[in-house]
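lol forgot to send this yesterday, sorry. struct tokens for the thing we talked abt
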């Protein structure tokens, strides 16, 4: 077992992971529909219906659902909550926040840029594949998306290196058989601090726990929660699988994402699970990418064949802004799952590397942006917006600067000639 998991599994009695005869029977007799073992399929459909057919505008930073829609969605899900906040945010509704995480992690949605606005839309190809799955397959594909592949980085939080399953396992192991009773909000927040409320809400939606609502307060209030027999049996199977095959459940990347890692674990109990959701990788097609590279109001429009690498794009940007090539750099962007991905200079031992990543292999759609960070000391940050794709041009063997606006900032400043009117932070703090 991977050493980094020892902290989470060292407290577990491995001998206690064997299923009892009644637990085996419980799993094999468990039907999966929109209400059982939990209401996850019903509530997930609520969000799919909300996005049908044209999607919705979302916030620019974390691409959250519009605040004006939260009250309506809260009434449509199976666990509406009452809170006293005058301007509740998406995270104020843990069930909606957790469902949104599933939307992004499942691969069913895309964020499209429309000018300065961002729009969350359903991917028609993936949605069609989703509709081909039976209810058992839908349930377990969502369970896998959540426990194995989700990351709270899609919610604007830090990218947890241990992953969702290990947080949920740790929380689960601390719940006594008689359940938990929360006398007040402070006590509840203490228990949910490490797992976070939206993961507790998802444990409820997937039928692992049952919760009883508490008095109305400024945030979600739980009076008590308790493990369900179904959840106990499922957790035994999951933990045993992680202990025996932890290498099977390592984080996937934007380039090799696929479902089905849990299928061998559960198929004996749920033989209806035959198919999995397929996320299209997209076929590579030679073309020319047009990027607008900006820092504050200064920009350069660059055309570059997508058969070149990010190293080539870096060189072109530096030349266009009259910078030298003496420092390390990286490109970062959000993938379709809402998680920040970074491609870094080849001298840093942390793949993927810029000299091995073709521009055309990046999961970018027109309107999407990357951040190009140059010089990890001075931290020059350029916004690299993918404006459009043009047909491949045999005459364009090398990148070209198509248009410019503004005088590029000086990479190195002579302190003796500085007039004191310019603040270096205006450039280096630009994000």
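and heres what i got for the seq, position by position
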């Amino acid at each position: 077992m991977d050493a980094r998991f020892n902290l989470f599994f060292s407290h577990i009695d491995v001998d206690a992971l064997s299923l009892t005869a009644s637990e085996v029977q419980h799993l094999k007799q468990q039907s999966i529909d929109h209400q059982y073992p939990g209401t996850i399929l019903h509530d997930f459909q609520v969000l799919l219906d909300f996005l049908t057919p044209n999607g919705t505008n979302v916030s620019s930073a974390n691409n959250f659902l519009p605040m004006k829609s939260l009250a309506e969605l809260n009434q449509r899900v199976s666990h509406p909550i009452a809170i006293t906040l005058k301007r509740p945010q998406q995270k104020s509704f843990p069930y909606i926040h957790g469902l949104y995480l599933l939307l992004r992690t499942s691969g069913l949605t895309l964020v499209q840029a429309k000018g300065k606005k961002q729009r969350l839309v359903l991917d028609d190809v993936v949605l069609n594949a989703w509709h081909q799955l039976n209810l058992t397959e839908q349930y377990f594909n969502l369970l896998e998306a959540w426990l194995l592949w989700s990351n709270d980085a899609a919610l604007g939080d830090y990218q947890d290196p241990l992953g969702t399953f290990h947080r949920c396992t740790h929380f689960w192991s601390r719940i006594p058989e008689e359940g938990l009773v929360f006398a007040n909000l402070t006590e509840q927040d203490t228990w949910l601090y490490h797992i976070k409320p939206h993961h507790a809400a998802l444990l409820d939606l997937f039928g692992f726990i049952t919760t009883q609502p508490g008095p109305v307060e400024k945030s979600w209030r739980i009076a008590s929660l308790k493990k369900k027999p179904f959840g106990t049996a499922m957790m035994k199977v999951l933990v045993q699988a992680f202990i025996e095959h932890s290498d099977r459940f390592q984080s996937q990347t934007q380039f090799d994402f696929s479902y089905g890692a849990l299928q061998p674990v559960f198929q004996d109990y749920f033989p209806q699970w035959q198919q999995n959701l397929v996320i299209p990788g997209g076929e590579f097609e030679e073309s020319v990418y047009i990027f607008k590279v900006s820092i504050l109001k200064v920009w350069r429009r660059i055309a570059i064949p997508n058969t070149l690498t990010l190293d080539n794009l870096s060189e072109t940007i530096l030349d266009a802004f009259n910078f030298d090539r003496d420092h390390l750099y990286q490109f970062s962007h959000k993938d379709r799952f809402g998680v920040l991905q970074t491609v870094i200079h080849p001298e840093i031992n942390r793949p993927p590397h810029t000299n091995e990543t073709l521009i055309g292999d990046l999961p970018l759609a027109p309107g999407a942006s990357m951040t190009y960070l140059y010089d990890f000391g001075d931290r020059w940050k350029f916004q690299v917006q993918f404006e459009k794709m043009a047909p491949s041009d045999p005459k364009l063997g090398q990148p070209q600067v198509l248009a410019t606006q503004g005088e590029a900032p000086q990479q190195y400043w002579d302190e003796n000639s500085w007039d004191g009117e310019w603040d270096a932070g205006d450039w280096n703090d630009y994000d």
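Confidence is low (pLDDT under 50) at residues 417-431. anyway ping me if u want another try
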